[in-house]
Amino acid sequence: MAEIRSICVYCGSRFGRNENFSALAENFGALMASADIRLVYGGGDVGLMGVIAKSVMKNGGAVMGIIPQHLEKAEVGLKAVTDFHVVDNMHDRKRMMFDHSDAFVALPGSIGTLDETIEVLTWKQLKLHDKPIIIVNSENYWAPFLDLIDHVIDQEFTIAATRDLFHVVDRIEDVLPLLKSLPQSRIDPKNTLI
Fold first, then answer.
1. Which entry of 53, 104, 112, 155 is 20 to 30 Å from 35 by CA?
2. Is position 194 within any domain?
3. Residue 119 CA: distances (Å) to CA of 47, 56, 89, 104
């Protein structure tokens, strides 16, 4: 079984139109804190990012926020977390988020969330890591993305096994039980992303 001590959560820097997504982020923060799992996230104090970080902190959990200099002011970095880091650029942010996480969870978000999710999927496809990736398809938010993956497979730009790079759940309550049921990562993290 996988030992998950920290989860990198990708999610929106806005709240979005569906108010249920804020509740989703808040609930996941509470679940992570109660399971003693640290949140690693993009460091913002806005949107779903702020909601999940504040929820983890409010429920006694640990949070590592990582934000690039140029977004610190724009996203109003949430410094009232366990660990707050300002890095030089987006690449350093994504690498540090990767290095400090045992798994990745994608909640609703915009193109930044999509970028981060696709990047860790690509790294996994290239066998640079074997960490679990879960997409939370609450209210079918990620359905167009999942359809796109199927289209890319259908057009033979990738193989059907691409769908095996990640897991999809509909309910936030299913994330932690799924992670606990997965095998331990098989690739030594010291040898990844060289």
1. 112
2. no
3. 22, 25, 16, 11
Q: Evaluate whether residue 187 is within a structural domain.
A: no
Residue 153 domain-assigned (yes or no): yes
For every one of its 194 residues, what pLDDT tens digit does the chain have, with 9 covering 90 and above? Answer: 678 999 999 999 999 999 999 999 999 999 999 999 999 999 999 999 999 999 999 999 999 999 999 988 776 788 999 999 999 999 999 999 999 999 999 999 999 999 999 999 999 999 999 999 999 999 999 999 999 999 999 999 999 999 999 999 999 999 999 999 998 776 555 545 54
Helix axes 20-34, 47-58, angle to 10 degrees: 30
Buried b (16+ CB within 10 A) or exposed e, 36-72: ebbbbbbbbbbbbbbbbbbbbbeeebbbbbbbbeebb
Residue 91's CATH number: 3.40.50.450
